[in-house]
C-alpha cells in the first residue's frame, strides 16, 4: 500500500462594494483523521480576526469551525492549511468477503447489525426526492441479482464516467439529479450525487464525501500553485461496517491521491464555507484558490506563499 503526504491550502476571499457590519460563518475545511488518513497539522485563519470563534465535531464526526466577525470590513478571507498523510487503497477491503458478497447483502435492512442501523439514515432519499424513474432505470442495469458488491460499484463508477461529460459551469448548486440525468453533464458533485441516488434506489446506504484530489502537472510542466480545486465523491456501506469510497468523476476507487475533508448525506451537510452577512452591499465577488502539494516537491510552501487566484466555478461550490 502506497502512502503520500500533502500540504493542502484552501483560500476563499469575499469582497463587497459596501461595508459588512457582521459576518457569521461555518466551515468544513479541516481534514478528518481516518484509518487510512492522518492529519499531521491543521489551521483555519480568518481575516479580519473574528470576535468569536469555536471548533467542534458534528453529528457525522466531521471537524467544523464557527466564526463571527463584528469588525466592519469589505473583504473576508478564510484560509485553511493542513498537512495530511494518506494511504492507498486497502486491497484487503476490496477483495474481502464483504466486498465480494452479493450486493443485496449490503442493504442495511438485511444486515441487521448495530452498524447497519446507523447506516440506515444514508438509505433515505432527500427532500425533494432524488430517486426518480430515470435513476431507478439506470441503477437496474448495474445492480443485477446476485452480483458481487465490488463488481457492481466499479461498474457504476465506470458507467457514470463514460456516460456523463464533465463540463465546468454546466450546473448550479440547485441543480437536481434528474436534470443531470437528462443533460448527461455536470461536475464532480453532480456525479457523486448521481451515484448516491442510484445506490439508495436499490436500498444501499450511500454518503457524499468532500475533499481534494492531488493533480500532477503534464509531463515537462511545472506545477502551478493554487491551480487545484475541491473535489467530491461517493461511498457505499458494506456489511462488515466499513465504507467503500469511489470516484465516478475519475473512474477509480478513492486512493492516496484523495484527501478527505468531511462527509454527510449530501453536499448541503458539508459545504466548505457557508454563512450570513449584514450589509447594504449590492455586489460581491468570491475568489477561491486551492493547492495540494506533495511534501517532497520543491514547490512553494502554502504557509508562506501568496498563490495566484484561480476560478473553480463548477468544480467546487461555496456559499456565504
What does this structure look like?
It contains 8 helices and 14 strands. It folds into 2 domains: 3-86 and 270-294, Immunoglobulin-like, CATH 2.60.40; 88-268, Roll (C8orf32 fold), CATH 3.10.620. The chain is α+β, with helices and mostly antiparallel strands. The model is unreliable at 298-320 (pLDDT under 50). It starts with a strand and ends in a 26-residue tail after the last strand. The strands form 3 sheets. Strands 1, 2, 3, 4, 5, 13 and 14 form a 7-stranded antiparallel sheet that branches. The protein is globular and about 60 Å long. 19% of the residues lie in helices and 37% in strands.
Task: Indicate the proportion of strand residues.
Answer: 35-45%
What's the helix-strand series? EEEEEHHHHHHEHEHEEEEEEE
Q: Report the helical percentage.
A: 10-25%
- Which structural class should the secondary elements be placed in? alpha+beta
Q: Would you give the CATH topology of the largest domain?
A: C8orf32 fold
What is the mean pLDDT? Answer: 90
Question: According to CATH, what is the class of the largest domain?
Answer: Alpha Beta
Which ranges are low-confidence, i.e. pLDDT below 50, for 5 or more consecutive residues? Answer: 298-320
Number of helices: 8
Q: What is the 3D form? A: globular
Domain Transglutaminase-like: 180-250
Protein name: Transglutaminase-like domain-containing protein
Pfam families: Bact_transglu_N (PF08379), Transglut_core (PF01841)
Organism: Gordonia alkanivorans CGMCC 6845
Amino acid at each position: 500500500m502506497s502512502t503520500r503526504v500533502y500540504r493542502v491550502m484552501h483560500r476563499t476571499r469575499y469582497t463587497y462594494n459596501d461595508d459588512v457590519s457582521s459576518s457569521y460563518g461555518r466551515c468544513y475545511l479541516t481534514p478528518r483523521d481516518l484509518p487510512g488518513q492522518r492529519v499531521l497539522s491543521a489551521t483555519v485563519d480568518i481575516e479580519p480576526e473574528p470576535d468569536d470563534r469555536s471548533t467542534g465535531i458534528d453529528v457525522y464526526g466531521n471537524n467544523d469551525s464557527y466564526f463571527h466577525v463584528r469588525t466592519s470590513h469589505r473583504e473576508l478571507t478564510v484560509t485553511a492549511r493542513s498537512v495530511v498523510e494518506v494511504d492507498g487503497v486497502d486491497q484487503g477491503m476490496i477483495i474481502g468477503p464483504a466486498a465480494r458478497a452479493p450486493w443485496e447483502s449490503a442493504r442495511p435492512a438485511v444486515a441487521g447489525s448495530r452498524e447497519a442501523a446507523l447506516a440506515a439514515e444514508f438509505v433515505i432519499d432527500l427532500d425533494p426526492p432524488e430517486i426518480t424513474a430515470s435513476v431507478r432505470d439506470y441503477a437496474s442495469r448495474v445492480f443485477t441479482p446476485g452480483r458481487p458488491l465490488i463488481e457492481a460499484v466499479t461498474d457504476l463508477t465506470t458507467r457514470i464516467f463514460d456516460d456523463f461529460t464533465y463540463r465546468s459551469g454546466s450546473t448550479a448548486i440547485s441543480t437536481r439529479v434528474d436534470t443531470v440525468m437528462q443533460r448527461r453533464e455536470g461536475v464532480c458533485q453532480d456525479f457523486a450525487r448521481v451515484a448516491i441516488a442510484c445506490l439508495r434506489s436499490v436500498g444501499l446506504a450511500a454518503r457524499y464525501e468532500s475533499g481534494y484530489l492531488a493533480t500532477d502537472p503534464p509531463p515537462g510542466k511545472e506545477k502551478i500553485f493554487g491551480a487545484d480545486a475541491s473535489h467530491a465523491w461517493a461511498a457505499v456501506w458494506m456489511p462488515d461496517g466499513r465504507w467503500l469510497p469511489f470516484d465516478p468523476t475519475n473512474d477509480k476507487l478513492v486512493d492516496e491521491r484523495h484527501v478527505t475533508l468531511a462527509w454527510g448525506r449530501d453536499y448541503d451537510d458539508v459545504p466548505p464555507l457557508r454563512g450570513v452577512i449584514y450589509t447594504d452591499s449590492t455586489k460581491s465577488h468570491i475568489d477561491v484558490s486551492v493547492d495540494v502539494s506533495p511534501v517532497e516537491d520543491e514547490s512553494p510552501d502554502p504557509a508562506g506563499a501568496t498563490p495566484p487566484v484561480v476560478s473553480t466555478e463548477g468544480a467546487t461550490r461555496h456559499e456565504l
